[in-house]
Amino acid sequence: MILTLAHAHAPAASHVHAPAHAGHGGTGLFGTVVAAAALLAALTYLSAAARLRGRGDAWPRLRDLCFATGCAALALALTVTLPGGPFTAHMAQHLTVAMAAPLLLVLGRPLTLVLRALPGGSPARRALLAVAHARPVGVLLFPPLAAVLDIGGLWLLYRTPLSAQAAHHPLLGAAVHAHVLVAGLLYTFAVCQLDPVRRRWGPGRRGATLLAAGWAHAVLAKSLYATPPPGTAYAAGDLHTGSQLMYYGGDLVEVALATVLATRWYAATGRARRRRARGTPYGPSRSSATA
């Protein structure tokens, strides 16, 4: 997401203030650092997956594709020129960094991969499990809280002067960028719950959170259609196109999230029915948290 300001010229020689290089040239040092980290993460992930297969363990290549594509999308969104006017390009970047890339990264199940790649009983594996099962992590992954951090942050960004203020303070701008990315990852992780964590919330609570967050995201997009963020101004056509991109693009990602949630629920229900059909004379079967 891009928060620096530049001057664009609107019709009739009036000045329109919009985020500088919104999708036109990346996000400076922050974008470069995150892009480099994303590409390094992709190489590390693919190397770990190859080692896993090399020792005879199964690891679906579709997960490789998802994670690598998410890393590439994140890197490109933060460093290359995106099409459209300033606000439209800004929203294309927002959808990629805050929604689409996090979904692809989570679908790769990186925590599961690392836990399977590390030797059993190693200090690194024990430390990683300790972090994943820590109480603060469990609190952050409570779906409603993760949704407030994610969608609530966007409301704060777009419906207060924060966006304009971050334009003039590089450290604040970098902090906002980091929050948008991390909150998007946290929310997506909390809704999908594909990796082993301290507590797994039921599909009902996660589904309700997804519906509420989708509604809040859609209302925000509609409000931006009518009024730009305080302290900024855009040409009406650019504002409308960007808001529509946020609205319909957000819907697509939310449908994908709902599909993941429903698929996991269906699979879990099927396993439970098979256990009941067998009678489970020696107690319930254990299902692997790292499947």
UniProtKB/TrEMBL annotation:
Organism, as annotated: Streptomyces longispororuber
Cell location: Cell membrane
Membrane topology: Multi-pass membrane protein
Cellular component, GO annotation: plasma membrane
InterPro entries assigned: Caa3_assmbl_CtaG-rel (IPR019108)
Keyword Transit peptide: no
Entry protein name: Cytochrome c oxidase assembly protein
Transmembrane segments: 32-52, 64-83, 95-118, 139-158, 170-194, 206-225, 245-267
Assigned keywords, A-Z: Cell membrane, Membrane, Transmembrane, Transmembrane helix
Keyword Protein transport (UniProt): no
Signal peptide bounds: none
